[in-house]
Design goal:
This protein is of the alpha+beta class. It has three domains: about 70 residues, Arc Repressor Mutant, subunit A, CATH 1.10.10.200; about 90 residues, 2-Layer Sandwich (Alpha-Beta Plaits), CATH 3.30.70; about 50 residues, Alpha-Beta Plaits (2-Layer Sandwich). It has eight helices and ten strands. The protein has a four-stranded antiparallel β-sheet. It has a four-stranded antiparallel β-sheet with strand order 5-6-4-7. Strands 8-10 form a two-stranded parallel ribbon. Helix 1 packs antiparallel against helix 2 and helix 1 runs parallel beside helix 3. The protein is globular. About 35% of the residues are buried. The N terminus is likely disordered.
Length: about 250
Amino acid sequence: MAGHSHSANIAHRKGAQDAKKAKQFTKLIRELTVAAKHGLPDPSANPRLRAALIAARAANMPKDTIDRAVKRGSDSGEGQNFEEVRYEGYGPGGVAIIVEALTDNRNRTAGEIRTAFDKHGGTLGATNSVAFQFQRAGSIFFPPKKAETDAMFEAALEAGATDVVSDREGHEVLCAPEDFNEVRDALEKKFGAPERAALIWRPQVTVAVGAEHAETLFKLFEVLDDNDDVQSVSANYEIDDALMAKLSA
């Protein structure tokens, strides 16, 4: 199993669902607020806000919570101090990792990210120390019930996508970053709102991870996910399905 984002591959332990949802909402609220602040509060004129709304609705966030987050960003004052920061480094087994964060305190966040890497056999590097191993791309994901594989492939290519990866979990449409909004809008008109739509870091090459590093690597991912400032984590690992099943048990 390989992937540009580890998030879909980490099994959440029973009994922690409420805490996970609360943290997910915290991250989504922050993104909604920042997206509204850096553009118009109208999602039709603000692509970043539109993407944030898709993510919030997919997470079943209550409408009033969404509206409050957007209003905070639209108003002057609250939420204005968040800034986007990217951290790069290597995890156990030489896996390249990119962490994207929204923070109101760069020193705090940098310290926490560095500690997470250090405690889990990794090394935090400088900006662009691993980004060259990834390609920036637009990713638009639809569940399988939205369309047959051939129909999705044809519509995606017609809309300007570069590739479609379909499996039993759904269809991931990939495109150049500059075409992201146009491709997403065209597919949304045809198939309805996607389940996820965002700019991602897609690995150009992957690193095979064995049993000696896999558990520690996934513990690092969990610690990073648990940080309220962290919005996304991308990594270029590849892991055997049997080992993945064992880690998820």
